[in-house]
Amino acid sequence: MGIKKLTVLITAFICIGLGGARASAHEFIQEISGRGGAILHISPGDDPAADEESHAYYEIKTDENLAGASANINFRSIDGSIDKTLPVTLKGSTASVGYTFPARGTYIVTLFLGLKDSKLLQLKTSLQITRGKGTAISQQPAPAWAKAGSIIAIWGVIILAFSAIRHRKALLPKSR
After folding, report:
1. Taking a C-beta distance cutoff of 8 angstroms, is the pair 36, 64 a contact?
2. What is the model's pTM?
3. Do 74 and 119 sit in the same domain of this protein?
4. Is there a domain that residue 48 lies in?
């Protein structure tokens, strides 16, 4: 394999590895004070699209008594341009609400449960909307140190690969 092909291959693997990960469905969301949590499901297929109606369902896991509790959910875009709070239907330990995401982007989703004994439970997670017709909301830029660190790491791997290729004859007898 030529040096050019190897360089392209290494660069591709590094770029794939550094790519952003979207929030996964069916992960347990810990309540902020540690008094329980919930599993979030969003239809359709846990992959909502902008400009299409979605339904969020929380399977709430807590020792707190949810009878008579009030619930609201807040959808806030990472840049703050979208901030919508809606009432939630609470049946037993399931909270549900319908919502249409107006744009693609990252949202902070917070479920607020007001219990009868004046306790407040908060479940907060981020959700990435990557599909749909709407225009994308602006994303928070990565910090400068993260960009610099990524560039340094990429160049370090490339230099290491070139060095290994250049000195492969000298390294080969030592590996036996």
Report:
1. yes
2. 0.59
3. yes
4. yes
